[in-house]
TrEMBL record, chains A, B:
Active site residues of this protein: 430
GO cellular component terms, semicolon-separated: peroxisome
Classification via InterPro entries: ACOX_C_alpha1 (IPR055060), Acyl-CoA_Oxase/DH_mid-dom (IPR006091), Acyl-CoA_Oxase/DH_mid-dom_sf (IPR046373), Acyl-CoA_oxidase (IPR012258), Acyl-CoA_oxidase_C (IPR002655), AcylCo_DH-like_C (IPR036250), AcylCoA_DH/oxidase_NM_dom_sf (IPR009100)
Cofactor: FAD
Native organism: Coccomyxa subellipsoidea (strain C-169)
Name of the protein this chain belongs to: Acyl-coenzyme A oxidase
GO molecular function: acyl-CoA oxidase activity; FAD binding; fatty acid binding
Ligand binding (FAD): 157, 196
Subcellular localization, as worded in the UniProt entry: Peroxisome
Family: Belongs to the acyl-CoA oxidase family.
Key words of the record: FAD, Fatty acid metabolism, Flavoprotein, Lipid metabolism, Oxidoreductase, Peroxisome
Gene3D superfamilies assigned to the protein according to its UniProt record, in alphabetical order: Butyryl-CoA Dehydrogenase, subunit A, domain 2, Butyryl-CoA Dehydrogenase, subunit A, domain 3
Length: 635, 635
């Protein structure tokens, strides 16, 4: 009823005859959730199914009654049992990255602590050894990581140094006499902080430290350092302090580390990009310290991709639960809460955004797997943007889902709340989002410094706001405009300061950048919005199952419209949109919401089914028969 | 440096000469935090200090290591010890509401579980008995609540019925034979759900049930029902099920209740607004069921005010911690993170908003204390709006604060994260926010149906965007425009349907309302924005300490500007703002941020000091010397 009314209202609002397209799309054909699943999940389908089946084991059911220490203990046991199945190997980090990622991704649908505990061990520790180490390291460590005989840690962050890794203070000095590196923590701010696994279980750690050889500083390098001996006792010179309880993710035992003259053999240096000869001769194919370090950490994209994927998968679970409850829960006059426009506007853009991010993640994996050296910068930009975008979207999506479930959204058994708590970390770790979005913007500004973009303002007059080409043009226009705006501000500042010399000009440019940091962040977002929308549309056009194309194209429309709506002030201020166009955008969003939630919301529910979340991962009682909560369903 | 640059940039951006006002304000005089504290905290100052002092007791220090059951147990013991001090009494609910509220508010600065456990007992149970009961109830129950001899519960919500309380299914039937009411839970959806204290400690409960007397339904009424006997055993016919773990607030033992032919004496009915004579004669001064119920629950504003105040106080703590860390934490090039515009834009509007909400809460208390019958509706609207506004702001503010602290924001010891988890409940309980905002909007639409507002579009041309009168006019314009827009849509629909009769017109009006529910929510927000801004300005002008006036007036400007900026699309679409005006708004926000964070952020820090949070409530290591974390400060 309400849906049909709004579809009708929509045709009144839209600005041209071509706008019937949306109402046409409302006539959504039936489509199979399995087809959509295969559209969204393209690799290791069988392996994933096998893992999910294994994770039915009662040991992996959520238990919210545990104390901190019990939960950590359970997480280790869960990981050991999982590892024993040998679904993948640390060697896959290099040999079969998709399999490697599929393995870790699957864990997130069960428990984020387990996923991160495994991620630190396999990706951050194992992956670093695989990528930055050479054969001797692989042979020595990877098989023992594979069995969890050596639980691994990743020691990059320090109490005083997070986002700015170049600024770490931990020292590694080569001692030619003994052929060893001596690792030291010179101050408390140099203590390694947040090191996953360090508090209790970790035995080996990839430690980032400033290398000094023959009195010369060579920048940050990575060393494999034993934290504990085989029996679990801390190694001599290693001081360990538990980070204690966190706001979530308490299955992971994060800890703080100090090194006091810890001696490690020359082979402890991961020497793929630089090496130290026994006599202390330092050599590296990359001469600049900054570039060398950039290459090292640049290779560690997998971690960032996993965090993005974890956020996307959590969004899937949240949206699926909230949609199922919304379509089954009446509150006033027997009307299901899904029928409220406010509810639709909270959940359906969340659904569309989750699809957009998932497809973007697939595209990034494709790019990554193609292994073309010329793509390195794009991979860095896209992975930074996706990481920040997907995790910030997740914050908003899970919050909306939790609120949409009313009180039930706060019940641990219904999963959204605990997931929200556990995952809150993802916006600041593996690259703080504010810093990540700047990485994206900086890349655009670098390009613009050479060749400034010429923003093309699309005309909305007489056009339909649901036209995918128009939406793409709008998103492109915003990105180009913001790029041009910030680039111009920087250029102007540099020019004004130029008479004072090159250094003054560079400083003025940096100041101008900082003065526009608010716009810089928006620019990062604008880029993410544009590429994810374009990707969504292209994926639907080229790879979507035929029956699902109308509904997926409607979903892409909704995604594009919500991104445009969010930035409406920009479009209005720039003159791209009139008041009427703004009204049409609103009507477009409302119309798409109506279409997706009509007839009991079957289309939205089916799309959520397309995520392919098995019942034992969906878990939440409200996703099944909420009327039974507490009577037959016990929490 | 950056601050001064931005202030300069601001003067370039602003559209008229009067805009120097902001740069003038930048010259902020010194002011005393204590004066500001007394501006923000006007009642029971000594009592609050005494309570806070008492709460230094180690028993009240946070402990994040506890299991669910241990935490519940500790919360009860904490409450008992607090109650033993007799800081206030349940009788104060009627006799000295400010003292009553001050008592409960103070608990929130220590632990939200403790605050809510006390709130359910004193406000929801005790307050209901005080307000809806008569002397016999007061005498019987209030003294035993005061000592916690009878831990009290509040039984309104049912598994199937939350926002729509009128729809509850629990039955109370009067039995003239025995002079008793018989309470029954006819279905599982009628089971009382979420009842705080019911799972373990509650002994008495104010139960909402549909009353039937002599076969006639009289609507929801409230009965005092014993859940457990003095020894703690469930009463005959009362079935209790633990709700289990939640996403936070785990010190409160929420539970589910079924009543099977539970017989309570005739006196169990809280009979202030209606009574049943021994022979079953029902009488009430309020004839209509809906109005009668409205009067009953309308009296329970205190709970809503407390939830709003709790959200405000949590925002204070979050903002204070994040600001102190931001001004002490360098990350790149020795630059404190507070110097980043992005950081300022995350924290300073949060600071301003927290002030705005706090002042609004004071104003609401004034209105409440004046006890003028003609204010009843205003109190309902303002309390609903403040509850929704303050709690939704809190979500955003605490999220921003947590993210601004990077990894440290996720450490439990730093308090923001656990507070965020615990308080997440506040957006849906004590009136779901989406429903509350509709209460606000409906009141405006009711008035508009009689006398539609005539929106006055203020002219921004040639005006300064930092002019407080202009900002007020802009916020008023938005509220009036949205009111007029929705009212017109409803009016049109009713008119079209009118030929079909009155019923059809009413139905069409209701449909039109639902079709515009997105705008209705914005209208609720627009009202909250407008009154909180006006209140802020008025408080500053009339009651602010003289030295602090410039800085507070700058803060009010920032608040108004951020609310206008958030709704910029509206102002642009309506023609009130041009692109240049939009740029001026941005520059105004950035300029105010610069002024507040200049010189090491002393003004912002001082304003946070004005919240008057004692060190033992601030708690977080990052609010003190973060460099010591883990070395001398142990978590
Ligand atoms: C649960 C958890 C597990 C972790 N596990 C590991 C691990 O196993 N190994 C490991 O090495 N690390 C780990 N980390 C550390 C994590 O990677 C860091 O927390 C992260 O890099 C951010 O650094 P920081 O916390 O020092 O924040 P900071 O870098 O100090 O940032 C603080 C704030 O300042 C802002 N800011 C900083 N720089 C800028 C800028 N240039 N412009 C604008 N704003 C800025 C940020 O946005 C943020 O809001 C973990 C962290 C957590 C919380
Ligand atoms: C920790 C906790 C403690 C509590 N303690 C108590 C207690 O002690 N005693 C007690 O009686 N209750 C208690 N409650 C219950 C609480 O008051 C309810 O959860 C609240 O009233 C919301 O009701 P609901 O959960 O049934 O959500 P619903 O009313 O079912 O709402 C679900 C969703 O639908 C949306 N929705 C509903 N109606 C509309 C509408 N008309 N328009 C648009 N959207 C709509 C809401 O916004 C929400 O997102 C507690 C709840 C919690 C979580």
């Amino acid at each position: 009823m309400a849906a049909e009314r709004r579809v009708a209202a929509l045709s009144r609002h839209l600005t041209s005859s071509s706008d019937v397209s949306l109402s046409a799309k409302v006539d959504l054909r039936d489509f199979a959730a399995e087809d959509v699943y295969l559209f969204l999940t393209r690799d290791n389908v069988e392996l994933r199914a096998k893992m999910l089946d294994f994770l039915k084991d009662p040991m992996y059911r959520p238990n919210y009654y545990l104390s901190l220490m019990e939960f950590r203990d359970l997480t280790l046991r869960r990981l050991q049992k999982f590892v024993d199945q040998k679904f993948f190997s640390t060697f896959d980090y290099l040999n079969d990255p998709l399999r490697f990622m599929a393995g870790l991704e699957t864990l997130a649908s069960v428990d984020y602590s387990l996923c991160i505990k495994a991620g630190v061990h396999f990706t951050l520790c194992g992956g670093t050894i695989a990528k930055l180490g050479t054969e001797k390291h692989h042979k020595t460590f990877l098989p023992r990581l594979d069995t969890l005989e050596l639980p691994g840690c990743f020691g990059m962050t320090e109490l005083g140094h997070g986002s700015n890794v170049m600024g770490i203070e931990t020292q590694a000095t080569y001692d030619e006499e003994t052929g060893e590196f001596v690792i030291n923590t010179p101050t408390d701010t140099a203590s390694k902080f947040w090191i996953g696994g360090a508090a209790q279980h970790g035995k080996v750690c990839t430690v980032f430290a400033q290398l000094t050889v023959r009195g010369k500083w060579e920048g940050p390098h990575v060393f494999v350092v034993r934290l504990r001996d085989d029996s679990g006792q801390p190694m001599p010179g290693v001081r360990i302090q538990d980070n204690g309880p966190k706001a979530g993710l308490n299955g992971v035992d994060n800890g703080q580390l100090w090194f006091y003259n810890v001696r490690v053999p020359r082979d402890a240096l991961l020497d793929r990009y630089s090496s130290v000869a026994p006599d202390g001769t330092y050599s590296s194919p990359i001469p600049s310290v900054a570039q060398r370090f950039g290459t090292m950490v640049g290779g560690l994209t997998t971690g960032r991709m996993l965090i993005a994927q974890g956020a996307i998968d959590a969004s899937k679970i949240g949206v699926a639960i909230a949609l199922r409850y919304a379509c089954a829960r009446p509150q006033f006059n027997g009307k299901c809460i899904m029928e409220y426009l406010t509810h639709q506007r909270r959940l359906l853009p969340a659904l569309a955004t989750t699809y957009a991010m998932q497809l973007q993640s697939l595209r990034l994996k494709d790019l990554y797997m193609a292994k073309r050296p010329e793509d390195a910068k794009t991979i860095h930009v896209v992975s930074s943007g996706l990481k920040a975008g997907a995790t910030w979207h997740r914050v908003e999506i899970l919050q909306a889902c939790r609120e949409c479930c009313g009180g039930q959204g706060f019940l641990a058994a219904n999963k959204i709340g605990p997931m929200k708590n556990d995952m809150d970390v993802d916006v600041t770790f593996e690259g703080d989002n504010t810093v990540m979005m700047q990485q994206v913007a900086k890349a655009l500004l670098d390009t613009a410094a050479k060749k400034p973009p010429r923003p093309q303002m699309p005309s909305m007059e007489g056009a339909s706001v649901t036209d995918l080409t128009l939406l793409a043009a709008l998103l492109r226009f915003r990105e180009d405009s913001l790029t041009a705006e910030v680039a111009a501000a920087i250029g102007r500042a540099a020019k004004v300061a130029a008479p004072g010399g090159k250094k003054a000009a560079v400083a003025a440019a940096a100041d101008a950048y900082e003065d526009n940091l608010d716009t810089v962040l928006q620019l990062g977002w604008a880029h993410v919005d544009r590429i994810t929308f374009e990707g969504f549309v292209e994926e639907v056009n080229t790879r979507a199952p035929r029956e699902a194309r109308p509904v997926l194209s409607l979903l892409a429309t909704l995604y594009g419209l919500t991104r445009v709506e969010r930035a409406l002030a920009f479009y209005l201020a720039s003159g791209a949109a009139s008041g009427a166009a703004a009204a049409a955008v609103r009507a477009g969003v409302n119309g798409a919401c109506a279409a997706l939630s009509a007839d009991g919301g079957w289309a939205a529910l089916r799309l959520a089914e397309g995520f392919g979340i098995p019942d034992h991962c969906l878990e939440a009682p409200i996703a099944f028969d909420w009327r039974q909560i507490g009577s037959t369903v016990t929490m």
